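[09:14] KT: can someone run the structure on this one? pasting the chain below
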Amino acid sequence: MAKVGEGDPRWIVADRADGTNVNGWHWSERDVSAWAKTYLTSRLSVLSFPGVDGDTVGDSTLTVKSVEGDAHLYNRKGNLKPVYDLKVSGQWRTAHTDAAARTSGTYAFELFDDDPHVTFTLDSSSAAVVAERDAARSAGTPAIRSVCREFIAALSAGADVAGAAGTPAVAPARSAAATLAALPPPPAFDDTAAVDLDAPPPDMVSVSVLLAARLGDVYGAFTDPGRVRAYTQRPAVVGGGVGSAWSIAAGSFETSGTVLEATPSTSLVLTWRLAAWPADTPDSRVALSMTDEDGKVRLSVSHTVIPSGQRGAIEAWWRGEVFRRIKVVFGWGDASFL
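[09:31] RB: done, C-alpha coordinates below
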Protein backbone atom coordinates (compact mmCIF):
# COMPACT_ATOMS: atom_id res chain seq x y z
CA MET A 1 0.00 0.00 0.00
CA ALA A 2 1.44 3.39 -0.96
CA LYS A 3 1.91 5.97 1.78
CA VAL A 4 -0.05 9.19 1.75
CA GLY A 5 1.35 11.46 -0.92
CA GLU A 6 3.27 8.66 -2.64
CA GLY A 7 0.45 7.09 -4.68
CA ASP A 8 0.18 7.00 -8.43
CA PRO A 9 -1.35 10.36 -9.48
CA ARG A 10 -3.91 8.44 -11.52
CA TRP A 11 -5.32 6.95 -8.29
CA ILE A 12 -7.81 9.75 -7.70
CA VAL A 13 -10.97 7.75 -7.21
CA ALA A 14 -10.66 8.26 -3.46
CA ASP A 15 -11.16 11.97 -4.04
CA ARG A 16 -14.61 11.24 -5.48
CA ALA A 17 -17.51 10.67 -3.15
CA ASP A 18 -19.33 8.64 -5.81
CA GLY A 19 -16.34 6.45 -6.75
CA THR A 20 -16.67 7.36 -10.44
CA ASN A 21 -14.36 5.53 -12.86
CA VAL A 22 -12.04 8.54 -13.22
CA ASN A 23 -10.03 8.79 -16.45
CA GLY A 24 -11.44 5.45 -17.56
CA TRP A 25 -8.81 3.59 -15.51
CA HIS A 26 -10.90 0.54 -14.63
CA TRP A 27 -12.27 -2.07 -17.04
CA SER A 28 -15.58 -0.95 -18.52
CA GLU A 29 -17.74 -1.93 -21.46
CA ARG A 30 -20.14 0.09 -23.58
CA ASP A 31 -22.61 -1.20 -26.15
CA VAL A 32 -22.55 1.15 -29.18
CA SER A 33 -24.52 -1.12 -31.50
CA ALA A 34 -27.31 1.41 -32.02
CA TRP A 35 -24.81 4.13 -32.91
CA ALA A 36 -23.00 1.78 -35.30
CA LYS A 37 -26.20 0.87 -37.16
CA THR A 38 -27.22 4.53 -37.48
CA TYR A 39 -23.74 5.52 -38.65
CA LEU A 40 -23.52 2.87 -41.36
CA THR A 41 -27.07 3.41 -42.57
CA SER A 42 -26.62 7.17 -42.90
CA ARG A 43 -23.25 6.94 -44.68
CA LEU A 44 -24.11 4.13 -47.08
CA SER A 45 -27.48 5.59 -48.06
CA VAL A 46 -25.87 8.65 -49.68
CA LEU A 47 -23.39 6.76 -51.85
CA SER A 48 -23.70 6.87 -55.64
CA PHE A 49 -21.35 5.76 -58.42
CA PRO A 50 -21.40 5.84 -62.24
CA GLY A 51 -23.03 3.13 -64.29
CA VAL A 52 -21.63 1.36 -67.35
CA ASP A 53 -18.88 3.33 -69.14
CA GLY A 54 -19.20 6.17 -66.64
CA ASP A 55 -22.86 6.78 -67.48
CA THR A 56 -23.88 9.33 -64.84
CA VAL A 57 -27.52 9.18 -65.98
CA GLY A 58 -27.50 5.57 -64.83
CA ASP A 59 -25.75 6.23 -61.51
CA SER A 60 -26.20 3.44 -58.99
CA THR A 61 -27.44 4.32 -55.52
CA LEU A 62 -27.66 2.25 -52.35
CA THR A 63 -30.39 1.76 -49.80
CA VAL A 64 -29.81 -0.09 -46.54
CA LYS A 65 -32.25 -2.83 -45.65
CA SER A 66 -30.69 -4.09 -42.43
CA VAL A 67 -27.66 -3.77 -40.19
CA GLU A 68 -27.45 -6.72 -37.82
CA GLY A 69 -24.92 -7.62 -35.17
CA ASP A 70 -23.23 -5.65 -32.44
CA ALA A 71 -20.41 -3.24 -31.64
CA HIS A 72 -18.80 -2.69 -28.26
CA LEU A 73 -16.08 -0.50 -26.82
CA TYR A 74 -13.94 -1.95 -24.06
CA ASN A 75 -11.96 0.44 -21.91
CA ARG A 76 -8.95 -0.86 -19.99
CA LYS A 77 -6.55 1.51 -18.26
CA GLY A 78 -7.57 4.38 -20.48
CA ASN A 79 -7.25 2.50 -23.79
CA LEU A 80 -10.25 1.82 -25.99
CA LYS A 81 -10.55 -1.56 -27.69
CA PRO A 82 -13.36 -1.83 -30.27
CA VAL A 83 -14.96 -5.20 -31.01
CA TYR A 84 -17.57 -5.37 -33.74
CA ASP A 85 -19.26 -7.91 -35.98
CA LEU A 86 -21.95 -6.50 -38.24
CA LYS A 87 -23.86 -7.80 -41.24
CA VAL A 88 -25.13 -5.19 -43.69
CA SER A 89 -27.53 -5.80 -46.56
CA GLY A 90 -29.56 -3.63 -48.88
CA GLN A 91 -30.45 -2.81 -52.46
CA TRP A 92 -28.58 -1.08 -55.25
CA ARG A 93 -30.46 0.53 -58.14
CA THR A 94 -29.57 2.55 -61.22
CA ALA A 95 -31.17 5.97 -61.50
CA HIS A 96 -32.40 5.90 -65.10
CA THR A 97 -35.42 8.13 -65.67
CA ASP A 98 -37.00 5.43 -67.80
CA ALA A 99 -38.21 2.77 -65.37
CA ALA A 100 -37.77 0.08 -68.03
CA ALA A 101 -34.06 0.88 -68.22
CA ARG A 102 -33.43 0.63 -64.50
CA THR A 103 -31.34 -2.16 -63.10
CA SER A 104 -31.35 -3.30 -59.50
CA GLY A 105 -30.22 -6.03 -57.16
CA THR A 106 -28.97 -6.58 -53.65
CA TYR A 107 -25.63 -6.15 -51.93
CA ALA A 108 -24.34 -7.54 -48.64
CA PHE A 109 -21.18 -7.73 -46.56
CA GLU A 110 -20.01 -8.73 -43.11
CA LEU A 111 -17.97 -6.12 -41.28
CA PHE A 112 -15.32 -7.36 -38.89
CA ASP A 113 -12.32 -5.57 -40.45
CA ASP A 114 -11.79 -2.65 -42.84
CA ASP A 115 -11.64 -4.75 -46.02
CA PRO A 116 -15.01 -6.51 -46.19
CA HIS A 117 -15.95 -8.79 -49.06
CA VAL A 118 -19.00 -7.18 -50.71
CA THR A 119 -21.36 -9.25 -52.87
CA PHE A 120 -23.70 -7.80 -55.50
CA THR A 121 -26.61 -9.81 -56.90
CA LEU A 122 -29.08 -9.16 -59.75
CA ASP A 123 -32.84 -9.11 -60.13
CA SER A 124 -32.44 -10.46 -63.68
CA SER A 125 -29.62 -11.85 -65.83
CA SER A 126 -29.66 -10.10 -69.22
CA ALA A 127 -26.30 -9.01 -70.61
CA ALA A 128 -27.09 -5.33 -70.04
CA VAL A 129 -28.10 -5.96 -66.46
CA VAL A 130 -24.97 -7.98 -65.76
CA ALA A 131 -22.86 -5.12 -67.12
CA GLU A 132 -24.60 -2.66 -64.80
CA ARG A 133 -24.04 -5.01 -61.86
CA ASP A 134 -20.36 -5.31 -62.67
CA ALA A 135 -20.06 -1.53 -62.90
CA ALA A 136 -21.84 -1.13 -59.57
CA ARG A 137 -19.62 -3.73 -57.95
CA SER A 138 -16.43 -2.23 -59.38
CA ALA A 139 -17.19 1.29 -58.16
CA GLY A 140 -19.35 0.41 -55.16
CA THR A 141 -17.01 -1.97 -53.35
CA PRO A 142 -14.22 0.59 -52.70
CA ALA A 143 -16.84 3.20 -51.75
CA ILE A 144 -18.37 0.84 -49.21
CA ARG A 145 -14.95 -0.09 -47.84
CA SER A 146 -14.14 3.59 -47.44
CA VAL A 147 -17.27 4.04 -45.32
CA CYS A 148 -16.27 0.99 -43.27
CA ARG A 149 -12.83 2.45 -42.58
CA GLU A 150 -14.38 5.77 -41.51
CA PHE A 151 -16.74 3.82 -39.25
CA ILE A 152 -13.85 1.91 -37.62
CA ALA A 153 -11.93 5.14 -37.03
CA ALA A 154 -14.98 6.82 -35.48
CA LEU A 155 -15.70 3.77 -33.33
CA SER A 156 -12.11 3.60 -32.12
CA ALA A 157 -12.23 7.28 -31.19
CA GLY A 158 -15.15 6.71 -28.83
CA ALA A 159 -18.17 6.37 -31.14
CA ASP A 160 -20.91 8.79 -30.15
CA VAL A 161 -19.12 10.27 -27.13
CA ALA A 162 -15.52 10.61 -28.33
CA GLY A 163 -13.41 12.34 -25.72
CA ALA A 164 -16.10 12.23 -23.03
CA ALA A 165 -15.03 11.58 -19.44
CA GLY A 166 -14.50 7.90 -18.87
CA THR A 167 -14.24 7.22 -22.61
CA PRO A 168 -10.83 8.56 -23.68
CA ALA A 169 -9.84 8.76 -27.32
CA VAL A 170 -7.41 6.18 -28.62
CA ALA A 171 -3.77 7.25 -28.54
CA PRO A 172 -2.67 8.41 -32.00
CA ALA A 173 0.36 6.10 -32.04
CA ARG A 174 -1.59 2.96 -32.99
CA SER A 175 -5.29 2.38 -32.55
CA ALA A 176 -6.92 -1.01 -32.08
CA ALA A 177 -8.63 -0.47 -35.44
CA ALA A 178 -5.25 -0.06 -37.15
CA THR A 179 -4.08 -3.23 -35.43
CA LEU A 180 -7.08 -5.20 -36.61
CA ALA A 181 -6.77 -3.76 -40.11
CA ALA A 182 -3.28 -5.26 -40.38
CA LEU A 183 -4.68 -8.76 -39.99
CA PRO A 184 -3.81 -10.80 -43.11
CA PRO A 185 -6.70 -12.00 -45.28
CA PRO A 186 -8.04 -15.45 -44.42
CA PRO A 187 -6.55 -18.31 -46.38
CA ALA A 188 -8.56 -19.95 -49.12
CA PHE A 189 -8.66 -23.57 -50.10
CA ASP A 190 -9.64 -24.94 -53.48
CA ASP A 191 -10.41 -28.65 -53.65
CA THR A 192 -9.51 -28.65 -57.36
CA ALA A 193 -6.07 -27.07 -56.91
CA ALA A 194 -2.86 -29.03 -57.36
CA VAL A 195 -1.78 -30.93 -54.26
CA ASP A 196 1.00 -29.33 -52.22
CA LEU A 197 2.78 -32.10 -50.31
CA ASP A 198 3.96 -29.61 -47.68
CA ALA A 199 0.47 -28.26 -47.04
CA PRO A 200 -1.86 -29.70 -44.40
CA PRO A 201 -4.48 -32.16 -45.68
CA PRO A 202 -7.75 -30.62 -46.91
CA ASP A 203 -9.67 -31.80 -43.84
CA MET A 204 -7.29 -30.24 -41.28
CA VAL A 205 -6.42 -26.82 -39.86
CA SER A 206 -3.32 -26.40 -37.72
CA VAL A 207 -2.78 -22.90 -36.33
CA SER A 208 -1.20 -21.34 -33.26
CA VAL A 209 -0.80 -17.96 -31.60
CA LEU A 210 1.54 -16.53 -28.94
CA LEU A 211 -0.30 -14.75 -26.12
CA ALA A 212 0.99 -12.48 -23.37
CA ALA A 213 -1.08 -14.26 -20.74
CA ARG A 214 -1.01 -16.98 -18.11
CA LEU A 215 -1.79 -20.61 -18.87
CA GLY A 216 -4.87 -20.61 -16.64
CA ASP A 217 -6.27 -17.48 -18.27
CA VAL A 218 -5.92 -18.91 -21.78
CA TYR A 219 -7.58 -22.14 -20.66
CA GLY A 220 -10.37 -20.02 -19.17
CA ALA A 221 -10.92 -18.32 -22.53
CA PHE A 222 -12.55 -21.60 -23.61
CA THR A 223 -13.99 -22.89 -20.32
CA ASP A 224 -15.14 -19.80 -18.38
CA PRO A 225 -18.58 -18.63 -19.62
CA GLY A 226 -17.89 -15.02 -18.62
CA ARG A 227 -14.63 -14.86 -20.54
CA VAL A 228 -16.13 -16.52 -23.61
CA ARG A 229 -19.07 -14.10 -23.64
CA ALA A 230 -16.66 -11.17 -23.30
CA TYR A 231 -14.89 -11.82 -26.60
CA THR A 232 -17.77 -13.35 -28.58
CA GLN A 233 -20.52 -11.02 -27.32
CA ARG A 234 -22.87 -14.00 -27.63
CA PRO A 235 -24.35 -16.55 -25.23
CA ALA A 236 -22.01 -19.44 -24.44
CA VAL A 237 -22.33 -22.80 -22.70
CA VAL A 238 -18.87 -24.00 -21.58
CA GLY A 239 -17.00 -25.31 -18.54
CA GLY A 240 -19.05 -28.43 -17.85
CA GLY A 241 -16.15 -30.88 -17.82
CA VAL A 242 -15.50 -34.10 -19.72
CA GLY A 243 -18.62 -35.51 -21.38
CA SER A 244 -20.55 -32.23 -21.18
CA ALA A 245 -22.05 -30.37 -24.12
CA TRP A 246 -20.69 -26.96 -25.10
CA SER A 247 -21.79 -24.26 -27.55
CA ILE A 248 -20.25 -20.98 -28.69
CA ALA A 249 -21.42 -18.44 -31.27
CA ALA A 250 -18.70 -16.21 -32.72
CA GLY A 251 -18.91 -14.19 -35.91
CA SER A 252 -21.09 -15.99 -38.44
CA PHE A 253 -20.37 -19.41 -36.88
CA GLU A 254 -22.63 -21.15 -34.36
CA THR A 255 -20.64 -24.08 -33.02
CA SER A 256 -21.29 -26.88 -30.56
CA GLY A 257 -19.98 -30.24 -29.47
CA THR A 258 -18.90 -32.39 -26.54
CA VAL A 259 -15.87 -32.15 -24.26
CA LEU A 260 -13.73 -35.28 -24.74
CA GLU A 261 -10.69 -34.43 -22.64
CA ALA A 262 -9.88 -31.56 -20.28
CA THR A 263 -6.59 -30.91 -18.47
CA PRO A 264 -6.77 -27.48 -16.76
CA SER A 265 -4.20 -24.96 -18.00
CA THR A 266 -2.81 -27.53 -20.42
CA SER A 267 -5.19 -28.97 -23.03
CA LEU A 268 -8.76 -29.39 -24.19
CA VAL A 269 -10.15 -31.85 -26.75
CA LEU A 270 -13.63 -31.35 -28.22
CA THR A 271 -15.96 -32.55 -30.90
CA TRP A 272 -16.91 -29.53 -33.04
CA ARG A 273 -19.60 -28.88 -35.61
CA LEU A 274 -21.35 -25.95 -37.25
CA ALA A 275 -25.09 -25.54 -36.75
CA ALA A 276 -25.38 -25.11 -40.54
CA TRP A 277 -23.90 -28.53 -41.32
CA PRO A 278 -26.34 -31.21 -42.53
CA ALA A 279 -27.28 -33.76 -39.88
CA ASP A 280 -25.36 -36.53 -41.67
CA THR A 281 -22.07 -34.55 -41.64
CA PRO A 282 -19.66 -36.12 -39.12
CA ASP A 283 -18.44 -34.02 -36.20
CA SER A 284 -14.99 -32.54 -36.60
CA ARG A 285 -12.46 -32.70 -33.77
CA VAL A 286 -10.52 -29.89 -32.08
CA ALA A 287 -7.46 -30.31 -29.88
CA LEU A 288 -6.30 -27.20 -28.00
CA SER A 289 -2.94 -27.17 -26.23
CA MET A 290 -1.33 -24.46 -24.11
CA THR A 291 2.42 -24.39 -23.45
CA ASP A 292 4.78 -21.91 -21.85
CA GLU A 293 7.09 -20.14 -24.31
CA ASP A 294 9.52 -17.63 -22.78
CA GLY A 295 6.99 -16.39 -20.25
CA LYS A 296 4.11 -16.28 -22.74
CA VAL A 297 1.59 -18.92 -23.76
CA ARG A 298 1.60 -20.72 -27.08
CA LEU A 299 -2.00 -21.68 -27.89
CA SER A 300 -2.07 -24.37 -30.60
CA VAL A 301 -5.17 -25.63 -32.40
CA SER A 302 -5.39 -28.86 -34.37
CA HIS A 303 -8.78 -29.03 -36.09
CA THR A 304 -9.41 -32.24 -38.03
CA VAL A 305 -12.19 -34.08 -39.91
CA ILE A 306 -13.26 -30.87 -41.69
CA PRO A 307 -15.82 -31.24 -44.52
CA SER A 308 -14.52 -30.80 -48.06
CA GLY A 309 -13.93 -27.20 -49.16
CA GLN A 310 -14.36 -25.61 -45.70
CA ARG A 311 -10.80 -25.53 -44.46
CA GLY A 312 -10.21 -21.91 -45.49
CA ALA A 313 -13.35 -20.60 -43.78
CA ILE A 314 -12.63 -22.50 -40.58
CA GLU A 315 -9.00 -21.35 -40.43
CA ALA A 316 -10.19 -17.76 -40.96
CA TRP A 317 -12.65 -18.25 -38.09
CA TRP A 318 -9.95 -19.40 -35.69
CA ARG A 319 -7.65 -16.54 -36.65
CA GLY A 320 -10.26 -13.77 -36.89
CA GLU A 321 -13.05 -14.65 -34.48
CA VAL A 322 -11.02 -16.38 -31.78
CA PHE A 323 -7.31 -15.42 -31.80
CA ARG A 324 -7.84 -11.80 -32.83
CA ARG A 325 -10.72 -11.22 -30.43
CA ILE A 326 -9.02 -12.66 -27.34
CA LYS A 327 -5.93 -10.58 -28.10
CA VAL A 328 -7.93 -7.37 -28.45
CA VAL A 329 -10.44 -7.87 -25.63
CA PHE A 330 -8.05 -9.25 -23.01
CA GLY A 331 -4.98 -7.24 -24.07
CA TRP A 332 -2.89 -10.36 -24.74
CA GLY A 333 -0.91 -9.03 -27.68
CA ASP A 334 -0.78 -7.30 -31.02
CA ALA A 335 -3.65 -8.61 -33.17
CA SER A 336 -1.71 -7.97 -36.37
CA PHE A 337 0.63 -10.88 -35.61
CA LEU A 338 -1.39 -14.04 -36.10
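[09:33] KT: thanks! The CA atoms of residues 14 and 20 lie 9 Å apart.
[09:34] RB: yep, looked fine to me
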